[in-house]
Structure formats: structure tokens, C-alpha cells
């Protein structure tokens, strides 16, 4: 999932000259808290129903609340509470039954049958039926919808042909057996299907609302949802209010009566709001990285830092000059001092990345040999490749790097990259920034040749990272194509043996690293702030926190 999250870098060995000055100045000194640090006495009993209001931040305003069109983290954070798919994420980030109470699989793994809960209801009281899923999925793959995640349904029979407009949406390999049975036919075994189905683009939709209101169906009161909450009100680029859905099939287990969400993109502002008790939960990035030490001391267990299933990298248009040259791509990647960037700017909150896949149980990361070389050897090879690509004194690489305006720390990181390339290679890389939504459009329409990007895994499987470089995938923005990689990726996607699948994915990532169609920067961690009176909130690799499991405990502030 493309990232709307911006955690700017946060300490290594010394660099000389302008780079050292950059890394040590400008926002690198920790701020001091402007107000009183509050303390809480927390009981074990739940607060009264009237006090079951949960106030949280969002990284930014969601681009859309249409599950078929959402692509950003804030959108997912809202949709996970408004809608429920066949499966869902629990408080620990595990995949559990959702609208489907159970499912069966054919022996060859190509047909799945899902059995829906008869008591599942929309927020207007109408029953949720298997046909609502058929409608949603057909709409997702319909070319007229222009859904960027349409290829995520490509495991379903005929999905690719529909996306390419050679078959109608009605040909999608999904059908109903009555109101509460959904049959899904796959083109290849997909062991991770239950995990994928927990994502928003597999959510059901309420057809009457879309037919009646058109594009306005996602605005209250037109938005009809089937999750634990419904959208009561929304201010454009402002506050969202979600209220408990009285028709939710498991409403008796939902303690919150209301969830209030504030889009706050600046982490310093978010921290100030949290310290002022305006927020019960400040989502990652919850604070500037330079504040981590004093926050750990002052807030203790309220600070939650954990691994996060995401990778930040630089994307490139690899079919156009100058990045069609593999030697240049490798040179730029090898010339970066990732440990310096992490230690000096990120305060050690990130994990330097030399490959695509973040740490995942059962998967062996494919770190290139040069990542372990002494600095002098690595830089010498970077300069050799740079020269082999046709660049050097008098013929420097000149290119612009696009990134989004998410605060001063993001710019510091981008400036550090450009200075490293200048000092280590002589390359002239200029910065170009835009608002997040505008930047996404420029990347999508290939107006940027070099750009900041990131990928957050939708589910815990290598496929969610690897398939972004698959030929024909809409979010393969750099237009990468390399037959040996595609062959290994297809082998992994066709296997029903998870151990063998992982081995294929490892080989594919190793091949990907030899071509370097992206420049890996760091693996994410999540850094959240959560009040001690919030129960049901847990760190997890996906950093997903459904409000249906959250409650407010009795507490006093002093």
C-alpha cells in the first residue's frame, strides 16, 4: 500500500563539511515540552458509556472513503472501522473471521467458499448479502472505476481480462449460492487469500447508495457501511466523527460509542495535542524523532515503538533516461550512507534498508554483498559504476528528486541524500516538493523520474511487496520489466506450498537487487503514543488498530 506516512529520519560516524552541518542543525535538537506532563490514575473497570469516546489522530486527511479507490494509510485507518470484509484484523493484527464466519477450500486450492453471517447488517439495517461482495469486486476490476488496486484481485478468474477491458465485469470468477454463500474461483493457489481479504478493496459495498448518490455516496449521511461504526459527520480536510453502528452483528462487544479522528500531518503538532490531552492516541509518526529520548523518560509506557511492515525507498522511471541505465541506479544506491542517515537524523528509530522486504518471520532478507563492504570499497565501486554509466567531472548527473511537504525533518532527509550524492559521486540532484495528493498524481502520471515513495504491506506475505514490480501492475509506476524476476515471481504466486513460495520470493528479491529499480532507504518502525486508560490497543507489525476492540478505562488526571 502506498504510504501517506512520513516519519522523518532520525545517529554513526562523522562526515565532513556541509553534510555534517546539515545533519546536526535544523530540528535535530530535542524540543522541550511546552506544557505540564499529565499523570493518570487508572482503574480496571470500564468508564461509563457516556465516556466511551476515543479521540485519535490521522496522518493526513484520507484521499477518499471509497474502499474501491482508497490507496493511502489514513484511508485504511478510517475504513477498517467503517467496513468489514469477509475477514478482518483483530487488535493484534491477526486475521480472523469477519462477515464470513467460516470458509472451505477445494483440494487444489482454486475454489474457496465463504459462509456469511446471517445477522450481518448495513448501518441502515439492511442485510449484508453475498451479492454485495460480488457487486463490490466487479466494480473494483471494472476499468471505468479506475481503481489502482484492481490488480490486487488478479488471483480471481478473469480479473486481468476484465481490467484490460477484454471481458465484462460480470465475467469475474465469483458467484453466490443464495444470500449467504460466496464462491470464489482462483487462477492459481493463493494461500494468503484470507489475509488479503481483510483489506479495504475487498470490502462489500451497498449498491443502492452508490446508484442513488454517485460520487457523493461517501459523504455523510449517504455513506452506508457494515463495520462496527458509521460515519456521522466529516469536515473536508478536517475532523471525522464515527459512531457505533447499532446494526453491527457483534455490536454487544463494541464498547466505544464514538470515535473522533483529527488529520494532523505535522508530528510536532500531533505531540503538542497529545500532551494537552486533546488526543487519546497519537498515530505514527506521533512525535519528531529528536524527541524520542525525553518522551521515553517523561511518558514511559505511553510510548510504543515497534517494527512496522513497511519500506521507504526512492522510485525511478527505469524505462527512460537517465534511469534506464542499471549502472547508474546501482551507483546511486551504493553511494548513500544509510547508517549515518538513520543514526544522525532518525535517532535510530529506523532500520537501514539495502533490499525491499522488511523483516518477516520465515523469510530470509536478500541483502546485497556490497552492503557489508568497507565504506571505501563501496564508494569506489559506486564511482566506477557512475563513470561506466557515462557520468563524471564535466558531465554530472542532473536530475530532480520529488518528495512531499510533510515537515522540516522530511526535507532534512532529502537534503542529506542530495549532499551524499554530491560529495560521493559529484551528482547534482535538486529537490522538488509538492503536497502529498499532488505528488501521488505526478508519480502516477509519470511526471517525476526520481521520487520519494514507500510501501506498507497490506498483509504479512512477501507477495504484497514483490508484486508492485510485476509487469502490468498499475502501481508499477517505474515501469520495471525484467524477465528473470517475472519468472520467479510467477513461480512464487503459483505455488500452494508456503515454504517453497518463500524460497521463490527470496530468489526473486535477489534478482531484483541486481537490477535496482528502486533505491531502498529504511525499514519503518511505528512510533505511537497511547494514553494509559486506553485498553484493547496493541502494537503489531501492520500497525492496525481497529476501534471495535478499544475501550476507555475509568481514570483521573493529575
TrEMBL record:
It is found in: Cell envelope. Residues 94-472 form the Solute-binding protein family domain. GO terms for biological process: peptide transport. InterPro entries: Peptide/Ni-bd (IPR030678), SBP_5 (IPR039424), SBP_5_dom (IPR000914). Its main location: other. The keyword Signal applies. One of its GO terms (cellular component) is outer membrane-bounded periplasmic space. Transmembrane segments: none annotated. SUPFAM superfamilies: Periplasmic binding protein-like II (SSF53850). It holds the Pfam family SBP_bac_5. One of its GO terms (molecular function) is peptide transmembrane transporter activity. It comes from the Bacteria. Keywords: Signal, Transport. Belongs to the bacterial solute-binding protein 5 family. This is Solute-binding protein family 5 domain-containing protein.
Amino acid at each position: 500500500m502506498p504510504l501517506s506516512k512520513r516519519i522523518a529520519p532520525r545517529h554513526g560516524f562523522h562526515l565532513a563539511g556541509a553534510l555534517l552541518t546539515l545533519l546536526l542543525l535544523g530540528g535535530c535538537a530535542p524540543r522541550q515540552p511546552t506544557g505540564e506532563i499529565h499523570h493518570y490514575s487508572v482503574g480496571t473497570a470500564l468508564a461509563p458509556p457516556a465516556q466511551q469516546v476515543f479521540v485519535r489522530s490521522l496522518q493526513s486527511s484520507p484521499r477518499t472513503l471509497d474502499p474501491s479507490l482508497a490507496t493511502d494509510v489514513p484511508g485504511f485507518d478510517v475504513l477498517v472501522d467503517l467496513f468489514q470484509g469477509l475477514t478482518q484484523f483483530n487488535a493484534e493484527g491477526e486475521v480472523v473471521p469477519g462477515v464470513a464466519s467460516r470458509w472451505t477450500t477445494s483440494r487444489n486450492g482454486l475454489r474457496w467458499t465463504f459462509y456469511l453471517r446471517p445477522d450481518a447488517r448495513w448501518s441502515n439495517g439492511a442485510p449484508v448479502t453475498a451479492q454485495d461482495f460480488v457487486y463490490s469486486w466487479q466494480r473494483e476490476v471494472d476499468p471505468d472505476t479506475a481503481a489502482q488496486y484492481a490488480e490486487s484481485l488478479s488471483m480471481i478468474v478473469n480479473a486481468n481480462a476484465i481490467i484490460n477491458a477484454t471481458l465484462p465485469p460480470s465475467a469475474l470468477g465469483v458467484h453466490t449460492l443464495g444470500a449467504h454463500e460466496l464462491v470464489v474461483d482462483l487462477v492459481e493457489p493463493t494461500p494468503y487469500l484470507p489475509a488479503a481479504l481483510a483489506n479495504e478493496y475487498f470490502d462489500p459495498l451497498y449498491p443502492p447508495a452508490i446508484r442513488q448518490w454517485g460520487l457523493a455516496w461517501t459523504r455523510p449521511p449517504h455513506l452506508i457501511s457494515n463495520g462496527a461504526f458509521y460515519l456521522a459527520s466529516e469536515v473536508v480536510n478536517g475532523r471525522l466523527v464515527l459512531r457505533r453502528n447499532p446494526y453491527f452483528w457483534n455490536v454487544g462487544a463494541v464498547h466505544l460509542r464514538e470515535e473522533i479522528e483529527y488529520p494532523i500531518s505535522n508530528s510536532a503538532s500531533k505531540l503538542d495535542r497529545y500532551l494537552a490531552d486533546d488526543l487519546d492516541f497519537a498515530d505514527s509518526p506521533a512525535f519528531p524523532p529528536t524527541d524520542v529520548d525525553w518522551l521515553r523518560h517523561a511518558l514511559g509506557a505511553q510510548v510504543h515503538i515497534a517494527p512496522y511492515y513497511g519500506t521507504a525507498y526512492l522510485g525511478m522511471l527505469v524505462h527512460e533516461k537517465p534511469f534506464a541505465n542499471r549502472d547508474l541506479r546501482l551507483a546511486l544506491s551504493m553511494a548513500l550512507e544509510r547508517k549515518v542517515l538513520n543514526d544522525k537524523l532518525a535517532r535510530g528509530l529506523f532500520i537501514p534498508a539495502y533490499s525491499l522486504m522488511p523483516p518477516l518471520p520465515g523469510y530470509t532478507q536478500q541483502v546485497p554483498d556490497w552492503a557489508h563492504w568497507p565504506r571505501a570499497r563501496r564508494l569506489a565501486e559506486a564511482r566506477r559504476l557512475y563513470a561506466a554509466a557515462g557520468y563524471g567531472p564535466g558531465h554530472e548527473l542532473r536530475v530532480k528528486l520529488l518528495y512531499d511537504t510533510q515537515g522540516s525533518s522530511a526535507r532534512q532527509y532529502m537534503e542529506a541524500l542530495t549532499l551524499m550524492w554530491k560529495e560521493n559521486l559529484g551528482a547534482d540532484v535538486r529537490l522538488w516538493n509538492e503536497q502529498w495528493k499532488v505528488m501521488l498524481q505526478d508519480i502516477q502520471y509519470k511526471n517525476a523520474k526520481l521520487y520519494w515513495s514507500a510501501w506498507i504491506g497490506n498483509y504479512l506475505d512477501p507477495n504484497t511487496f514483490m508484486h508492485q514490480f510485476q509487469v502490468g501492475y498499475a502501481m508499477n509506476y517505474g515501469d520495471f520489466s525484467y524477465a528473470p524476476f517475472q519468472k520467479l515471481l510467477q513461480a512464487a504466486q503459483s505455488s500452494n506450498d508456503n515454504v517453497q513460495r518463500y524460497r521463490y520470493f527470496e530468489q526473486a528479491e535477489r534478482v531484483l537487487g541486481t537490477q535496482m529499480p528502486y533505491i531502498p532507504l529504511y525499514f519503518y518502525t511505528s512510533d505511537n503514543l497511547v494514553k494509559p486508560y486506553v485498553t484493547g490497543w496493541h502494537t503489531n507489525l501492520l500497525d492496525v488498530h481497529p476501534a471495535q476492540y478499544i475501550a476507555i478505562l475509568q481514570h483521573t488526571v493529575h
